[in-house]
Automatic annotation (TrEMBL):
Its EC number is 2.3.1.-. It comes from Funiculus sociatus GB2-A5. Keywords: Acyltransferase, Transferase. This is GNAT family N-acetyltransferase. It holds the Pfam family Acetyltransf_10.
Amino acid sequence: MKIRLFHEQDAVQIAQLFHETVREINIRDYSIDQVKAWAPDNIHFRNWAKVCSNRYTYVADDEGAIAGFGELEFSGHIDCFYCHKNYQGMGIGRKIYCAIEDKAHELGINRLYTEASITAKPFFLHMGFSIVREQQVERRGETFVNYAMEKFLKNAGSPA
């Protein structure tokens, strides 16, 4: 398993991974209507390529199969963070997260933050994040619970 930065040709696999993960993993914590609003059937692959190219998007590459991905924005925001349904519980998310945190240190970012789903909340807690607040968000007419979470990094920007 290799953790590397996103390549444009990864966009189709990433979009499919997102869609399948929400529909088959997040369904444990959200209703069918919620997951259909979150991950609609009409995936726009070009949009994924554009968004992933404008961030530090790390992918877990298992000999050409994308096992997971996570996005770090320049502000310290972790936007999308998903692990493929067939790679859950194998430490892939931790490896992607470590690459993100290493990049944040390199960039001098001292605070990481995200909006974690009910499903992702335990992972981010395990990575040292704190819950700032539970919130209600709306997407395509459906309301969801998620959690604003943050983690302050020690010695951001300092040489190791």
